[in-house]
Write a structure and sequence with these properties.
There is one protein chain. The protein is built from nine helices and two strands. β1 and β2 form a beta hairpin. It starts with a helix and ends in a 5-residue tail after the last helix. The chain is rod-shaped and about 130 Å long. It is mostly helical. 78% of the residues lie in helices and 4% in strands.
Length: 253
Amino acid sequence: MKMSSLTMLRAGLLALACCSTLPAHAALFEDDEARRAIIDLRSRVDSTRDSLGHQIDGKADKSSTLELANQNEQLRAEIARLRGQIEVLTNELANEQRRQKSFYTDLDARLRKLEPQRLTVDGKQVDVGPNEQRLYDAALSLFKAGDYRAAASAFSGFIANHPGSGYNGAAYYWLGSSHYALRDYKSAIAAHQVVVNRYPDNPRAPDSMLNIATSYQEQKDRANARNTLDALITQYPTSQAAQAAKERLPKLK
């Protein structure tokens, strides 16, 4: 279509050129007819040129539209690719957040295990560290298992490593009881005396006094045994240990 239009234009221009170069003496047409023919030819040339220009413009518009369509398709493909990357990154971020949450939850749990816990020990609120609790429980397990020598060593180590522990009143009590089981009465009296002197409000203090009196009895020291029982009845009159002391006193006179 484009080529035929160009051909028509070229033919029209050639005809116009031929008409313009006709010799003056050539009188094949009358002047009016010649002018009409030239005007008609020029009109046809202009019309053909305009038509060709419109066709060229149309071709250009179609080309631009096609190019825009191609660009639009490329943009869509790029957007789809970017959306895919965004989805992947979003999933990775969500997974990372879950991993971090799990990590911090586990870390928090571990840190809590390392932090002192507020516990009630012998009727008092005290802070107990995890290692402190573990060592005390291990020493008490040895005593309950009947391994008194190991228990005495464990309680001594506990007291040395945790001098300010809320378990120390109980630790001295079990230390004295371990020595008594080993028939080391002197050491038993010393340990139980710490309970009475340092921890008089400890619920085991009356029992410690009773154990001290018993240790004196084992040593044939009736005087100190009797004095200890009297002191027990005076200091802890409502305790079960005081009732036992009342029953023993007549036997020591």
